[in-house]
Specification:
Structural class: alpha/beta
Number of helices: 12
Distance between the termini: 59 Å
Largest sheet: 8 strands, mixed
Number of strands: 12
Helix content: 25-40%
Strand content: 5-15%
């Protein structure tokens, strides 16, 4: 009797990238319309020390990269799709560097593929944009795997550990968060250390106002967005002891890991969190081993994708440190419901005033699940992959229209004549593959592009 054999599995056939035209759609949280609370309300940032950069976070370029998307096609025609931030530079990295490790590969080999991309970029990209680009590639691969296997991602990484996922809300109005059913609210700290004693007093008054608005027992957290230092953190935490702040988040620069030991020694009874702007298991190792943090908060679209997040979570579990991912919508939801040391999830308020619940990725997808009354039933995630259907009206521009050299002419090949603006009928360009999700969505893009 012949020995049973495993079924053939599709390999990676093609990779396509896109930028999202306009604002309010895709994986760059901060690329939103003017007046949105995320960019145009007082929020202390590392740039707030300069007065001219305090009014709007776009003044110093928080949205400069924009959203981009990765589409990975299997040899059977199945397509995985994911979004993140990075814009045209991200597309360029995908095609000029990382694509070589992916074409022809078995998408099930997620550890191997991540390790090759990470190590190949180590000389220029241990943190920041290159790792964020790898993250989106990795998420697209997991989406592809789920669609090939016809099962949700969370079922492939451990299965459900609960029936519902509870959320807190990050936004400008704790009263609204409470009314919408979230168990707690996180607010951004408005004023930075460089604004002196007057700014400190206004910060305390700001937090006191919110505490009074929701009563003594509703949890309030404070997001400091890497903008404080050790002495200021100790001082403001002391001044707010009577306000029962649930946790202080990202008080220090991500590079000041030793500083967290100092603030924890000063206030052992308080909770401190960070991790949103940390990358890879190596970056999180020191945060976890120091045992100075009460929660770590990796962003799955930034730290290295689902593949690396699973490693970080396992490391944290060995130290009994909860993992509560930063935003990332359904990518985080699938992860959190599969892990026993992930007690809840953040919802980043995407409405301009922060007072209603809208999809985290705007109108990019038709069916992004969102919390209702502060929670999400896990059965809402029971679709193949991440369960997201691309909106046919999504404003996607293929990278081949934007890059010089474009993905069809890698570096090192003879240069072509410099592109000129199109003023008449443009040359025919290759359409996206007929099996690609975005086929047919970009007919109007030719009028906006240049010939090559």
């Amino acid at each position: 009797m012949a020995a049973p054999t495993v079924r053939d599995f599709p390999s990676i056939k093609a990779i396509r990238t896109f930028v999202v035209d306009g604002v309010g759609s895709g994986g760059d949280y901060h690329n939103v319309e003017g007046g949105h609370w995320l960019i145009d309300t007082p929020i202390s940032t590392p740039m707030s020390r300069w007065e001219k950069y305090r009014t709007s976070r776009t003044s110093w370029g928080i949205n400069v990269l924009g959203s981009f998307c990765v589409e990975i096609e299997g040899s059977d025609g199945t397509v995985g799709f994911a979004t993140g931030f990075g814009g045209p530079p991200a597309c360029w990295l995908v095609h000029q560097h990382f694509e070589r490790f992916l074409i022809g590969a078995d998408p099930r080999d997620t550890n191997h593929l991540f390790e090759q991309m990470y190590r190949a970029a180590m000389f220029y990209g241990r943190k920041g944009l290159p790792i964020a680009v790898i993250s989106v590639i990795d998420l697209a691969i997991w989406d592809l795997l789920g669609k090939v296997r016809n099962e949700p991602v969370y079922k492939m990484i451990g299965g459900a550990t609960r029936d519902r996922l509870d959320f807190y809300c990050t936004g400008p109005e704790p009263v609204a968060a409470k009314a919408m059913g979230f168990w707690g609210a996180k607010v951004p700290l408005p004023y930075c250390p460089e604004e002196g004693h007057k700014g400190l007093k206004k910060n305390v008054e700001f937090l006191r106002k919110h505490r009074e608005s929701v009563g003594p027992d509703f949890p309030i957290m404070v997001d400091c967005y890497m903008s404080l230092n050790v002495p200021y953190t100790i001082e403001i935490a002391t001044a707010c002891l009577d306000l029962n702040i649930n946790w202080w988040e990202e008080c220090l620069s991500p590079d000041d890991t030793d500083g967290f030991a100092q603030i924890k020694r000063a206030h052992p009874q308080l909770k401190f969190t960070t991790g949103e702007h940390e990358y890879s298991r190596y970056g999180f190792r020191k945060l976890i081993e120091g045992r100075n943090l009460d929660i770590i908060q990796p962003d799955v679209m930034w730290l290295g994708g689902m593949t690396e997040l699973l490693k970080v979570a396992a490391m944290a579990a060995a130290y009994d440190i909860p993992v509560v991912p930063h935003a990332s919508g359904p990518y985080s939801y699938h992860f959190v419901v599969s892990q026993t040391n992930c007690p809840f999830q953040e919802y980043l308020a995407n409405s301009p005033d922060g007072k209603s619940v809208l999809p985290v990725f705007g109108d990019l997808f038709l069916d992004e699940p969102i919390p209702v009354n502060g929670y999400l039933d896990v059965t809402q995630l029971d679709k193949p992959g991440f369960g997201l259907t691309l909106n046919p009206a999504a404003r996607l521009i293929p990278a081949q229209y934007l890059l010089t050299p474009n993905p069809e002419r890698p570096l090192g090949q003879p240069a072509v004549e410099a592109a000129k603006p199109v003023v008449e009928e443009p040359k025919k360009v290759e359409e996206p593959h007929e099996n690609g999700i975005v086929n047919g969505l970009v007919q109007g893009v030719k009028d906006m592009t240049t010939t090559v």
